[in-house]
Predict the structure.
Amino acid sequence: MAQLTEDQLDLFRAKNCAVVTTLGPDGSPQATIVWVDEEDGHPVFNTTNWRAKGGNLRRDPRVSVLVWEDGNPYRYVEVEGDVELEEDVGGEHMHRMSRKYTGKDFHTPVDRLIVRVTPRRVYDYDDD
Amino acid sequence: MAQLTEDQLDLFRAKNCAVVTTLGPDGSPQATIVWVDEEDGHPVFNTTNWRAKGGNLRRDPRVSVLVWEDGNPYRYVEVEGDVELEEDVGGEHMHRMSRKYTGKDFHTPVDRLIVRVTPRRVYDYDDD
């Protein structure tokens, strides 16, 4: 497992968004923007259980998570790794993510997955 | 080929950045942030010929390009498709990209590739 530095983890702790890329059934890349955070050095996000990302990650756990400093895309960290999936019982994790970004509980916290990434490779970009 | 709307193409025409995801030798996703534009309905970007992206795209032309409105990640468009590669002779294309984003020529416009994407699937997100 690759280790992220505190500076890199801070990008995940702040209210920055991230692009998550998963692999479709034919192995082609599919990307979306998500809320993100970190737990014990692991990037973490939340997705619906049955939408594309959830289905893709059940089939192939390989993922790229790229987080950038809000308003400054010349500072970013990309983490490549494998995911572990956990059912978000009661939507508690999604509520927590929503409170971080919006200050409020999430509107429809049903049937969701917590996705934790074990980093295999970390790419750090800082052009400031 | 999927068609992008004028609103979607405007995101590529503006000074927004994009996350480009290519596939590594083992098929795993690798993402970076790039400058982007559009030509005749095709997202276009520029990369070094021999770095990861160039090598990946020569091996497997499948790509995801996700462009978001600068400062507003709740408005974005993701394009999945296949690339066509063209040598950027004299770095003219890279200079043009650099002038769009920085107002100046590029510092080292050598050994670069123009990458044009033929869209297969377009995903549009707007949470405003």
Q: What stands out?
A: The first strand of chain B starts at residue 17 and ends at 23. Helices of chain B lie at 6-13, 52-59, 92-102. Chain B has one domain: 6-126. The CA atoms of residues 52 and 79 of chain B lie 20 Å apart.
